[in-house]
Predict the 3D structure of the following.
Amino acid sequence: MLEKKKRRAIIVIVEFNKDKIQLGEVKQELISLATTAGVEVVGELYQKRESPDSKFFIGQGKIEELKKLAEENNADLVIFENELLGSKISNISNYLEVNVIDRSMLILDIFAGRAKSNEGKLQVQLAQLKYSLPRLRALSENNNKYGAGVGMRGPGETKLETNKRIIEKEIQNKTVELKKLVSHRNTNRQQRMGGSKNIVAIVGYTNSGKSSLLNLLSKEEIYVKDELFATLETTTRKTWLGDGKEILLIDTVGFINNLPHEFIEAFGSTLEECVYANLLLHVVDFSHPNYKNQMKTTLNLLKKLGATAPIITVYNKIDKFKTGFVLEDSDKDSIYISVIKQTNIENLKSLIKSKLN
Ligand SMILES: Nc1nc2c(ncn2[C@@H]2O[C@H](COP(=O)(O)OP(=O)(O)OP(=O)(O)O)[C@@H](O)[C@H]2O)c(=O)[nH]1
Ligand SMILES: [Mg+2]
């Protein structure tokens, strides 16, 4: 998507003894992120350690192994699952002689390619600037040696700034600019919502089917794709649930595990939409092996944002169960549906209506 010539990457996952990660899921998600950013994953490396190595993050033996792996597979990029600080990025990329980024930079790169509105672009730029500040030297070295690759592109294909003073000034300016936009949007929101008590926000982990559900309920054509962060900006649609009941349905950016705080700060204004909602539809990809953790991530983020509206948990994609899914007795706060097969949608509508009265 972003690269003219497809980058070839080795992914690296380090698990520390104190953390218990679900390696398969973590790996799968990182590969999905890479694919979404237009990168081909050509190799992988895993290490379990007590703590990060002070120079290379991974051990001396492992860095040798990584160098070999990169050479053998003709890789021009290494992506770490773990968050890397500047000196480590420099040490590793100098040793390997390829561009090195971490998962957060990969996510930023996807965001940069997606942002369309002024507000979206500003948010991405702010997140990038804040994230790059403690990593400047490494990023500009990387940039000069290996070209402005994945993780270093601003929205609209602009090259990211690497001068500290300019960046600090830009952070200031853009924060002010964003504040203005947000206050303008808040005024707009009040007009847009017209004092409605029927504001329903669709939230959930990325790729769970939020936009698909909005499309189905509102008969709209919002961008739906089997990739992470297909939606980066919120969309609001008037929707009728039958019996003359009108709601305002809001599609939101997807959540993902381990988002650095710079992102949450920067995207706060977009995510704020769920704070103003009267009801939240928490869409879950029930067919995903890791759906329970994905739910936890979403609920934690909602808590951080201060969203307190009642939640209906919408377990989606039940069509993916081959043996024919037996609908469990849905309690009054959850429901099992398939957007694709349009299973149980009328019941969902009734449930929404019952919660809004
Ligand atoms: N099998 C199946 N696939 C579904 C269902 N609902 C959505 N999908 C697919 O899941 C993928 C993601 O759907 P989206 O609607 O873009 O998901 P989203 O939650 O908006 O994703 P982001 O905007 O990336 O956070 C698409 O390929 C959809 O076609 C469903 O009920 N069953
Ligand atoms: Mg979406």
Summary: The first strand starts at residue 7 and ends at 16.
